[in-house]
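Researcher: Here's a chain I'd like modeled. Treat it as a single chain, no partners, no ligands.
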Amino acid sequence: MKRFWNWLPDHVDRRVRVLAWLSLICQVVLVGTGGLVRLTASGLGCPTWPTCTDDSLVNTPEMGVHGIIEFGNRTLTFVLVVIAIAMFLAVIRFRAERRDLFLLALLIGLGIPAQGVIGGLSVLTHLNPYVVGLHFVISVVLVCLATVLVIRVHATPGARERAVPRWFAVLAVVLSVLVAITIVFGILTTGSGPHAGDANAPRNDLNPELLQHVHSWPAYAVLAVTLVMLVATFTARIPGRRAVLLLLAVEVLQIIVGLWQARTGLPPFLVGIHMVLAVTLAAATTNVVMGLTRRVSPSAEDVERPHAVTTA
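Model: Modeled as a single isolated chain. Structure tokens:
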């Protein structure tokens, strides 16, 4: 046990960075496989939970391709659990020095089983659209946390300060709220549309045509705010231009796919791409927000540190 403890990283090294990236990549892949489950009507391919059937933990040949797809998505959750445990162990030795990494690894590790439970509830409620929507929200949150983790393992530790003007930081907060609203309305729109995950699954009975328009309004607002931020990075020499450009690229691609799918009757492959781009949008937005601060220079830290008080 001591040998294993000594083998664990005592600082951020390549193992820590690789695990952080694996956490982010697998979270995004999980959304993709979850979309595949929904778009192939495999949501009840395993009709019960936590086992696949009442008599089998795994899918059976009689369940066909739907059982394979649904159980494959469940299996990926266990891969994420393994990565989360490895990530937690990778930072536990230097948790005092990097409390931020320890807390992020802990939150992601706790979020994965919570996500699995909500996924199970969606099966037990026969794919209730609101439960399925909550399942997607948890995925978005975990992708954002994993993005922060990736950024933090590459950043220099220490006290941080705002690196941009206050108005620019406020714009970033507005951007984040608009992105969240866009994703929520996207979830409601999907819950009213044809891709229920199963032919007999309920819908939320909202007007899908109206929701498509309502969903687009905050999306265009996100684009407008992003353009303002991008122009500001050029005219006011505000840092973070690459992050904003990356966000803009994701937004443009997302809008193109969204318009394309709406005008072609929501083909499954486009809806699946739109779902993956939604969490990619959340990750890119998180990347922009994380770029609003910079490490305080050592000299500034010395100035801000209170002097020791001595008494006779």
